[in-house]
Specification:
The complex is a heterodimer.
Chain A: H1 3-13, E1 18-24, H2 30-43, E2 48-51, H3 62-73, H4 78-88, E3 96-99, H5 102-108, H6 110-120, E4 122-126, H7 136-144, E5 148-150, E6 152-153, H8 159-168, E7 173-176, H9 192-202, E8 207-210, H10 216-222, E9 228-231, H11 233-239, H12 247-265
Parallel strand pairs in A: 1-2, 1-9, 2-3, 3-4, 4-5, 6-7, 7-8, 8-9
Chain B: H1 2-12, E1 26-27, E2 30-31, H2 40-54, H3 57-69, E3 77-79, H4 81-87, E4 91-96, H5 106-120, E5 124-129, H6 133-145, E6 149-154, H7 155-160, H8 162-170, E7 174-178, H9 185-199, E8 203-206, H10 216-224, H11 226-239, E9 245-249, H12 254-260, E10 270-278, H13 289-292, E11 294-298, E12 301-305, H14 330-338, E13 341-347, H15 348-362, H16 368-382, E14 389-394, H17 402-409
Parallel strand pairs in B: 4-14, 5-6, 5-8, 6-7, 9-10, 9-14, 10-13
Antiparallel strand pairs in B: 1-2, 3-4, 11-12
Classes of the chains: A alpha/beta, B alpha/beta.
Chain lengths: 266, 413
């Protein structure tokens, strides 16, 4: 059992929902990322997703893509990310999952990547460009190391395939709310709640919703049907807000949003 | 005993090269599908639609008729007599894809995928383009079929390939310059994929090369194979046998795949792919993943790619926008590792010199992409006896490059 599995068990026992924020490692610096992780953990995040910047992120919208570009431009290497996470992870109250392209995992080597990520303090990985049928080898390695492998389902995924994906996932299943890329949206699809409820009835793996969630209103509407909500671009945008010069003030903004969303979820 | 041996040999024999890819889109280890889950259903639908179209004689007949009356196929085989004399060795022949409507091989694929778009009932087309040839071919097919078309093009390429940008607009396509990353072909593919992620239910993405997730590498190769099929048949008419060597340039690798595929089981025919050698073999100075890269994942498939030690895509360079790409089609990776195709590279300078030579010796302006293939062919031919034959895929015409060549020379255009 990974630390993510454990966290969802605790939440279930407490009848709580998981707030899962996303931050990009190294945007604008790894020190800033560590400060953001501490802020989000203190604000009550259940799990935090840490984006490993990638040069060609086809699933990401402009906010996260730009954030990856800034992180890579400032010279953020995988080794430096692992070192920074190893420093900060013991101080946090929540497990960390990395969001990482399969291009990176494959280049490092499947086994070596999982070992290094785990040693750094990650409890699992979300690999957005790895389909369930291509994931067999990585899944075995993750299972051996008690490392969660979180797959995504989308509104276009047929029901029987959703079940197959849930079966191949550990930690949680990432339910993508919309057909498209990451980013904030005013409207979420009306049938989303039904689809998530259906999947939750069919599987024991927790189901969390992500993509497009940015406001307390979204959280109030979706929290009842899911085990957790993932908030990405809305946080990344606040952390990179050029209008606010003072980095502490940016962190306050993020803590404020986190607190509001958590309150709306319960 | 004999029966058993026979059975074993059948089981252990690798499938014939022309039978690839397998059901998962694999050419050996290469290819496959490495994309977000959002695209899975559309890719599955595309596989099903393509398989049914392939078996439908009316689809093939409609495509053949378009290739004849709209594109002007078959494209001729041409003996480059004065170039042959200048090289002083084997005969050099061109497969004249530059004579196609829109001036390159790209139209073979866009008409095929355009017909598929209609068949699937999708109402919008997106495409990426590097040199602009695929963008123009997509805009052309869409104008012909009455489909709206959005073309993503790196901002740097928009600058380098202005005439093509204007042609696309004239045919009603919307050209969206891409400002992210290196502002070239790779970024255009990223942006087109992002569009497709959000529009997949109504939109078909016409990928312009033998890259991307399954079934694109197979499908684009099949549509381009008309080049090699014609060339093979024309060879018998022109010189009574198959050529000794066949040469084509490789960026993503679609003209090369289309040229080589019908020859891969002809053991006597040597196949040579020419990558963009850029300025030097140093990292970032070329676009030759088969020569200098290693296997990895980019844009949905597993193939040779230029990456750093962290798996980040490396910057690449080529004077030719159509070859300025860090990846390559997975079937080329397979052919390379299987030893069936030999891959070499040609530097910017040699390509530019060859452009000049072909223009002055033959009265043909070759595309800078194709100039890479001709440059390698000239070297190869020079080492061979005069009764041998080297066939080059002249994949496109070079009018689009005239302005960039003038700029590089500091001349007015």
């Amino acid at each position: 059992m990974s630390a993510i599995d454990q966290r969802f068990q605790e939440l279930k026992a407490d009848h709580r929902k998981a707030f899962i924020p996303f931050v990009t490692a190294g945007d604008p610096s790894l020190d800033a990322t560590a400060a953001a992780l501490q802020t989000l953990s203190d604000a009550g995040a259940a799990v935090i997703e840490v984006g490993i910047p990638y040069s060609d992120p086809i699933a990401d919208g402009p906010v996260i893509q730009a954030s990856y570009t800034r992180a890579l431009d400032s010279g953020t290497s995988l080794q430096a990310i692992f070192e920074a996470i190893a420093q900060i992870a013991p101080k946090l109250d929540c497990p960390l999952a990395c969001m990482v392209s399969y291009s990176i995992i494959l280049r490092i080597g499947l086994e070596k990547f999982v070992q290094s990520a785990r040693a750094a303090g990650f409890a699992g990985a979300i690999v957005p460009d790895l389909l369930v049928e291509e994931a067999g080898k990585l899944r075995e390695i993750c299972q051996d190391q008690d490392f969660s492998l979180i797959h995504l389902v989308t509104p276009t995924t047929p029901p029987e395939r959703m079940l197959e994906i849930a079966k191949g996932s550990s930690g949680f299943v990432y339910f993508v709310s919309v057909t498209g890329i990451t980013g904030e949206r005013n409207q979420l699809p009306p049938d989303l709640a039904d689809k998530v409820s259906w999947l939750r009835d069919q599987t024991d793996v927790p189901v969390c919703i992500g993509f497009g969630i940015s406001t307390p209103e979204h959280a109030r509407h979706l929290a009842p049907v899911a085990d957790g909500l993932i908030v990405g671009s809305a946080i990344v945008r606040r952390l990179a807000d050029g209008e606010i010069q003072d980095s502490d003030a940016r962190l306050e903004e993020v803590a404020h949003l986190a607190t509001e969303i958590i309150a709306a979820m319960h | 005993m004999n029966v058993l041996q026979g059975k074993n040999s059948v089981e252990s024999a690798s499938p014939a090269m022309q039978q690839l890819p397998d059901g998962r889109g694999r050419f050996g280890d290469f290819g496959g599908r490495f994309v977000p889950e959002t695209l899975t259903r559309a890719l599955d639908e595309l596989v099903a639609e393509y398989e049914s179209a392939k078996k439908d004689p009316s689809f093939q007949a409609e495509l053949d008729e378009l290739l004849r009356s709209f594109v002007g196929r078959a494209s001729p085989l041409y003996y480059a007599k004065r170039l042959t004399e200048a090289a002083g060795g084997a005969q050099i022949w061109f497969k004249r894809e530059d004579l196609n409507h829109t001036g390159a091989h790209k139209i073979n694929n866009t008409l095929g995928q355009g017909l598929l778009t209609l068949r699937m009932g999708k109402t919008r087309v997106i495409a990426e383009t590097g040199a602009g040839q695929h963008g123009v071919a997509s805009a052309t097919a869409c104008a012909h079929f009455g489909l709206p078309c959005v073309v993503y093009m790196g901002a740097e390429d928009v600058r380098r390939q202005k005439p093509n940008v204007f042609s696309m607009k004239l045919m009603g396509a919307e050209v969206r310059p891409v400002e992210s990353g290196s502002r070239t072909l790779r970024d255009a593919v990223n942006e087109a994929m992002r569009d497709w992620m959000a529009s997949v239910e109504t939109t078909h993405y016409i990928i312009g090369s033998v890259i991307g997730p399954h079934p694109f590498p197979m499908m684009v190769r099949d549509f381009q194979s008309v080049i090699g099929r014609e060339a093979r048949e024309q060879s018998y008419h022109a010189f009574g046998r198959l050529p000794d060597k066949v040469v084509a340039c490789v960026g993503g690798g679609s003209n090369a795949a289309g040229m080589f595929y019908p020859f891969v089981e002809d053991d006597g025919v040597e196949l040579i792919g020419v990558e963009a050698g850029g300025l030097s073999a140093d990292p970032g100075q070329h676009a030759s993943p088969l020569s200098h890269g290693q296997p990895g994942v980019l844009h949905g498939s597993f193939s040779y790619v230029m990456q750093d030690g962290d798996g980040q895509t490396s910057p690449v360079h080529s004077v030719s926008a159509g070859l300025d790409y860090p990846g390559v089609g997975p079937e080329h990776s397979f052919w390379k590792d299987a030893g069936r195709v030999q891959y070499t590279e040609c530097r910017d300078g040699a390509a530019l010199e060859t452009f000049d030579k072909v223009a002055k010796c033959e009265g043909i302006l070759p595309a800078l992409e194709s100039s890479h293939a001709v440059a390698a062919a000239l070297e190869i031919a020079a080492e061979m006896p005069k009764d041998k034959i080297v066939l080059v895929c002249l994949s496109g015409r070079g009018d689009k490059d005239a302005a960039e060549i003038a700029r590089l020379r500091g001349e007015d255009y």
